[in-house]
Amino acid sequence: MRVEKIIAFFCAGLSFVMITNCQKKQVTQKPNILLICVDDLRPELKSFGADYISSPNIDALASKGVKFQQHFVNAPSCGPSRYTLLTGKYGPAGNNALFLRAKKIKNGTEEINQSMPEWFKTHGYTTVSVGKVSHHPGGRGGKNWNDSTKIEMPNAWDRHLMPVAEWQHPRGMMHGLANGEIRVTRGDMDVFQTVEGDDNIYPDGAIAKEAVKQLGALASSSEKPFFLAVGIIKPHLPFGAPKSYYDKYDGITLPEIEHPQKPEGKTTWHGSGEFMGYNRWGKNPNKDAAFADDVRRHYAACVSYADAQVGKVLAELKRTGADENTIVVLWGDHGWHLGEHAIWGKHSLFEESLHAPLIIHYPGMPHKGANSDAIVETLDIFPTLCDLTGIETPEYTNGASLKDILADPNTSGHTAIAYTNKASTIRTSTHRMTLHKDGFVELYDHTTVEKETKNIAEEYPELVEELKNVLNTRLD
């Protein structure tokens, strides 16, 4: 009898220890985060309504998550847009925004709030970036963007990695074409290119390979949750992708370019300097419809190539089993005009420059594959990830958590703000107002067929004043 009591006591104690340990693990184990950033990706994806696009991997993620159909970035350029993503705050409008922040940290003359990765690092995460996450791929400055004394985001990453393969250095990777071709001058490099070969003949193949390697290592360690950010370069200019991706669009009929005319009056229109600076064989897509279609097919090929790299990373996440406890965010850093308003590029404050895809998925989410038409912005990602992981949201963030919209995609959003050095803009569910530094106003009604082709500011002075007040208050 005594032996039986001892055995029963031992078993009860063992069960208590096991239950306690399980409970402890459940309480302390935070979800991992996989943040995938894609450069110059407008919502040109099948899951966002572009039926002719082949984007099976991103679409598969969209079928499990919530697609934010009305997500807008806070700046129509890589550097300032990524600043808002990575800091949760409005910032400078130039591509050097994060380097200016780094300089302030180095000078130590003012208190600088923690960036998003640093915040998660402080809260027990291993933070790793691969590819183009901040403005410079690999997160370093210097002539070739590989100077380890010039860090774009101090204190942010445990590892910030940029494989360069045959492209020699991160600067070479950023605008690289097939088989190690590096941009010396823009005018000497073709604006688009198609070459036979596998994914590794272009730079993103190396980025995806390193991302898979890092993901495998992070998933195999149970000591700490991970925050892995992966930055895919394509479809950034020049539009280069393996021929197999271009072949997907050979002979297809492309949709018509909406409002292709140069706008009348004062706007944020520009002459597409980045695009026009490349070798175009003397052709202008605003005057040559066949050339315009070829440009669009090459852009589409780059989207499909980028999608394939995303697929490799997501496949590794599933292979490791880490997908069962990982929040996945896919984010486009801004839009890109493909001839709308006679612009080929970003940098305007029209819809096409600011509208970008956003997909969020987490295990057990209630509305898999849902669409949200709520107006949201890039600034919302930082507080959302804090909310989803159960980490305190810092008071200094300017965005709003999207957790309620993820729980109910019919929930309303909020206005979205964006800016350049010359103007700022506010997007509501019905209108866009753009305020120039000299006081000139553009107002567009998105409930009409004219949308952003007819400035109605003079007809609605009260609405203009209302939106001015909101815009100035948000950016104050």
From TrEMBL:
Its cofactor is Ca(2+). Belongs to the sulfatase family. PANTHER family: IDURONATE 2-SULFATASE. Residues 31-391 form the Sulfatase N-terminal domain. The keyword Calcium applies. GO terms for cellular component: cytoplasm. GO terms for molecular function: iduronate-2-sulfatase activity; metal ion binding. Keywords: Calcium, Hydrolase, Metal-binding, Signal. This is Iduronate-2-sulfatase. Pfam families: Sulfatase (PF00884).
